[in-house]
Fold this sequence. Notes:
Blueprint: H1 2-14, H2 22-34, E1 40-42, H3 44-54, H4 62-66, H5 75-86, E2 87-89, E3 99-103, H6 110-122, E4 131-136, H7 139-154, H8 157-163, E5 165-167, E6 172-174, E7 179-185, E8 196-200, H9 209-217, E9 225-230, H10 239-252, E10 260-264, H11 276-282, H12 292-304, H13 306-317, H14 330-335, E11 349-355, E12 363-371, E13 374-384, H15 385-389, H16 392-399, E14 403-406, H17 413-426, E15 428-434, H18 440-448, E16 453-455, H19 460-475, E17 480-481, H20 485-493, E18 495-498, E19 504-507, H21 516-529, H22 537-545
Parallel strand pairs: 3-9, 3-10, 4-7, 4-8, 8-9, 11-15, 13-14, 13-17, 15-16
Antiparallel strand pairs: 1-2, 5-6, 6-7, 11-12, 12-13, 18-19
Amino acid sequence: MFTHRALQYAEDISNGKIPACKHVINACNRFISDLSRKDIFLDSNKAEQWCEFLEKLPHTKGKWAAKSEKLVLSDWQIFCTVNIFGFYIKKSKRRRFRSAYIEVPRKNSKSFYIAAVGVGMLTIEGEYGAEVYCGATTEKQAWEIFRPAKQILEKTPNLRKKYNVDVNAKTLTILENGSRFEPVIGDPCDGASPSCAIVDEFHEHKTSDQIDTFTTGMGARENPLLLTITTAGSDMGGPCYALRSDVIQILKGTVKDDQVFGILYGLDDDDDWDTVEAQIKANPNYGISVDPDFLRGQLNQARRSAVKQSAYKTKHLNQWVGAKAAWMNMLAYQACRKNIKLEDFKGANCYVGIDLASKIDIASKAILIEKNGKYAAFVRHYLPEETILANDRYKAWHADGWIISTPGNTIDYEYIEDDLKELKSNFQIKEVPYDPFQATQFSIRMLAEGFPMVELGATVRNFSEPMKELEALILKKNIRFDKDPVLMWMFGNVVAKLDKKDNIFPDKERPENKIDGVVALIMTINRAMLGKESGSLDEWLTSMVTK
């Protein structure tokens, strides 16, 4: 019964009968296609067993708990359960999926569903010495999963008796075989050997350390499960966004990974966010656990307030929006990211913007290139070695070649100067705008080397129009960027500081939200705009194309 419902759900999604975004459609098409594969098979008995077990568990809060009702799985939950617990590899007879990534907006009953799965992994899974962990960055978040799991077992004495489960204050245990279910805050110990690890609201994690430790500890298990479930967030430079990007590629079929299940509910790039149709499309439990009247009230507030709009998009439509009061439409920005390389444009005209910031922080060099009437932008980031070593995110970006390290605990500007000289040998540098703050000696040395240095202070007068032009270029897809994750993170961090005359200036919400690369890029736009009769970089681009 449940397997048939999962297939019907997948077909209804695939045929457009149920509105869904492309990521959900891809997940459903993958399921339908996998049913005909020869190397894996769907064990209907296992899938049915899991779904039947979950529907025997009692609700623990809200109107359903007040009426002593049991969990009734929604179609999307059945689809996930059948996929995760139903597919097996023919050759090894092991469960196919070892990892699952589920992204769904708030109020779609994700926490209780995952808590129930955790109880199943402790009991019906039958793993001797099972270790089930619910991981989070704070104790409060970890208890969002552990509390309902604990309450489920408190309300089911027959289940406790059948599996000899002891319910304690901070752990659920089966003493006879050493199995346990407990919350974990931060990194689990290296000796942990999870049979199941649940990571809730992964978007709040600054690093992937917890997931990495869980994953490495699963090596001795035959059928382990790493279950990551989250809503969208604002940190597009964090580990959650990197993971979701990988899962999206798997669902598209551009990356093959048979051990990862994924489904991401939300909107498509061209959907209007401020409609009831968008609410229905993004929320699989719309009208069940998601109250339509509540969502309409949230939508009305979002229409009136830019700040509430950002929160509404993130929490109720599952859109990643960068900073909480973000300036940039990050979906539009991502559409401009392509597989391009700086060396592809040798000999072209370019503007080079320099933002040296602090010697202990990120310095950025932006390169705006014009070639054959088209534009591309590249940004190079510099950090002192000691700063990189103290930050896991910076370490990962440096390892991948996106951050340039200079020795010691302060930035050695000679590295930037040498890179600028090399750039001059390969490109026609028209101007080098720079912020005079922190850069006086640097500019003197570069002038002596023959560079066309232009002082450009970080003022509203210098930044407002170029910032608007940069936004327009991105929205119209008239500029291209490479796949630099540091720059994407910085774009997501930018908030627009607005004055009474509608002038804007790039700002950030917190000191750790760096925006230096975007600032350097805005400088290049300023110089590119200067002296053009149209006063618009878009019109300038059009005129260059028609030459």
